[in-house]
């Protein structure tokens, strides 16, 4: 069997037209040996859940700068679950006020990364979670 | 329920999971593929290749859209992008150009990284295509970056191969440079809204005429004579047509799909459709036999023996052919 690759969907839900941060994260994950599916700007929650299903990703990273995270994230999580993707790791990056972080984690978001977060931290968090997940898969 | 049964029942999550198993060469995938195999052989496979930035993903998007809107056929897309040779990672960005297709349950898009070996990629792509075929996708579009042998191998999978070219990517015609012009059944000059289309099209036409001469000039007794190329009926020779498109606007796409369908019909009428299927399956069978035989052989040859013969080969005491013979006869001695 060939090496099990970590597959990540990087998506930008909402209407803000700025994807520099998302691209920086996408490249950092690629440089860490992951396969990153990049879907571009202005994705609806439905588009994101559909892409996650078709691509069978292990991780979904959402970049949200518009301030609409408290509306978008629960919707995306619901759609992922409806698609049977309960075990997908979801993280959020962008401009998220500290006050909203507990609520996002409560919903099932694994990590929230503000503008100051390092891409190394994101890589490490994903690796740690995936090691645990892959260890449970049959070999 | 078995994955294969769920896939045949139309479960997209099950299909996506099998595609992952195929990519990872996960042994769980093989039994599922075996179960699906009787349901394959119905899909029309279209390869789309060309240099980066020529508009392949945009074109795949508009071809798929046309098949959905005018032919009501289910469409699957396999979009292959290169893995980084240094980190093994990849950014797969083809879906960015395919947003028109989202929300349509009759379309399934899968991005694939080329990963390590070229042979492995062609094999994995063949299996991914089989899974889509069994799942009832009637048109399967395979996008690859036109860079050489891997594309040629993947093109062998396809019934119809489009080679995409665009003006403004430098002086050379990229497909000629990459040596992939020969695999084209249809040549597409995309970005026909950009300056330089005429030049690109002229260069392609020039290359085509070299490959498919219509008339030849002979020197005979000091006079040049123009002789028509031997007459062949349309059924026998397919001369790749050149189609201009503006993929981002859909311009030229109905005509392109018409040309694609014409090529499919041509293949069916002259028997090439069945011949290509047979050749493709024979190649798959031989690949598997080769792999299996080598694995079995390696199990029967003690590693010390193998290493000793390899040492002799490295020291030039044995030629490669003699070394292979030595390994084979060592197994005969022990059985
Ligand atoms: N002007 C123009 N731009 C196009 C056309 N087709 C694609 N593009 C643009 O060319 C760029 C590369 O397209 P893409 O489909 O990703 O090319 P690929 O790398 O070959 O898959 C994108 O910015 C597209 O919007 C076209 O027909 N005309
Ligand atoms: Mg592309």
Describe the structure.
The complex is a heterodimer of chains A (139) and B (335). With 139 residues, chain A is α/β, with parallel strands linked by helices. Chain A has a single domain (7-136), classed as Cobalamin-binding domain (Rossmann fold), CATH 3.40.50.280. Chain A has five helices and five strands; from the N terminus they run βαβαβαβαβα. Chain A has helices at 20-31, 45-55, 69-82, 101-107, 119-135, and strands at residues 7-11, 35-38, 59-64, 89-94, 111-113. Chain A has a five-stranded parallel β-sheet with strand order 2-1-3-4-5, with helices on both faces. The longest helix of chain A is centred in the C-terminal third of the chain and has 17 residues, at 119-135. Chain A is globular, with a radius of gyration of 14 Å. Helices cover 49% and strands 17% of the residues of chain B. Chain B contains twelve helices and ten strands. Chain B has helices at 3-8, 12-23, 28-36, 56-71, 118-134, 149-157, 174-178, 197-211, 253-270, 272-300, 303-314, 320-334; strands at 44-50, 75-81, 90-92, 107-113, 139-145, 160-165, 186-189, 215-220, 223-228, 242-244. Chain B folds into two domains: 40-276, P-loop containing nucleotide triphosphate hydrolases (Rossmann fold, 3-Layer(aba) Sandwich), CATH 3.40.50; 301-334. In chain B, the strands form two sheets. Chain B has a seven-stranded parallel β-sheet with strand order 4-2-5-1-6-7-10, with helices on both faces. In chain B, strands 8-9 form a two-stranded antiparallel ribbon. Mean pLDDT of chain B is 88; it is low at 230-235. Chain B has 335 residues and is an alpha/beta fold. Strand 2 of chain A pairs parallel with strand 3 of chain B. The complex binds guanosine-5'-diphosphate (GDP) and magnesium ion. Residues 52-58, 94, 97, 190-191, 193-194, 246-248 of chain B line the site of guanosine-5'-diphosphate.
């Amino acid at each position: 069997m060939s090496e099990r690759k970590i597959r990540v969907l990087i998506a930008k839900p909402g209407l803000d037209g700025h994807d520099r941060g998302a691209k920086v994260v996408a490249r950092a994950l690629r440089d860490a040996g992951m396969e990153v599916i990049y879907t571009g700007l202005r994705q609806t929650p439905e588009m994101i859940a559909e892409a996650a299903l078709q691509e069978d990703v292990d991780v979904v990273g959402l970049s949200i700068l518009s301030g609409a995270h408290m509306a978008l994230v629960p919707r995306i999580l619901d759609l992922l679950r409806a698609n049977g993707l309960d075990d997908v790791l979801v993280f959020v990056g962008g401009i998220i006020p500290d006050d909203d972080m507990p609520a996002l984690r409560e919903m099932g978001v694994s990590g929230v990364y503000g503008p100051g977060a390092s891409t190394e931290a994101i890589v490490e968090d994903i690796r740690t979670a995936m090691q645990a997940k892959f260890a449970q898969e049959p070999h | 329920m078995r994955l294969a049964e769920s896939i045949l029942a139309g479960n997209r999550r099950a299909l996506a999971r099998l595609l992952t198993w195929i990519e990872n060469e996960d042994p769980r995938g093989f039994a599922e593929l075996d179960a699906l195999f009787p349901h394959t052989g119905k899909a029309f496979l279209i390869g789309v290749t060309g240099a980066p930035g020529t508009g392949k993903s945009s074109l795949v998007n508009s071809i798929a859209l046309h098949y959905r809107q005018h032919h009501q056929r289910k469409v699957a897309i396999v979009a292959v992008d290169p893995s980084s040779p240094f980190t093994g990672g990849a950014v797969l960005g083809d879906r960015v150009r395919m947003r028109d297709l989202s929300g349509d349950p009759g379309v399934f898009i899968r991005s694939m990284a080329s990963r390590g070996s070229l042979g492995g990629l062609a094999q994995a792509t063949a299996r991914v295509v089989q899974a889509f075929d069994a799942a009832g996708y009637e048109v399967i579009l395979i996008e690859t970056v036109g860079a050489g042998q891997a594309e040629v191998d993947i093109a062998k999978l396809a019934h119809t191969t489009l080679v995409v070219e665009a003006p403004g990517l430098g002086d050379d015609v990229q497909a000629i440079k990459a040596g992939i012009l020969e695999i084209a059944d249809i040549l597409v000059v995309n970005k026909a809204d950009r300056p330089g289309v005429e030049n690109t099209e002229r260069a392609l036409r020039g290359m085509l005429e070299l490959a498919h001469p219509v008339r030849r000039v002979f020197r005979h007794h000091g006079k040049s004579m123009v002789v028509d190329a031997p007459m062949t009926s349309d059924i026998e020779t397919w001369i790749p047509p050149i189609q201009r498109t503006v993929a981002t606007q859909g311009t030229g796409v109905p005509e392109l799909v018409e040309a694609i369908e014409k090529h499919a019909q041509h293949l069916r009428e002259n028997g090439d459709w069945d011949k290509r299927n047979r050749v493709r399956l024979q190649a798959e069978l031989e690949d598997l036999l080769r792999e299996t035989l080598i694995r079995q052989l390696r199990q029967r040859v003690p590693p010390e023996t193998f290493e000793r013969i390899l040492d002799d080969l490295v020291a030039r005491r044995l030629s490669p052919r003699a070394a292979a013979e030595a390994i084979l006869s060592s197994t005969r001695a022990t059985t």
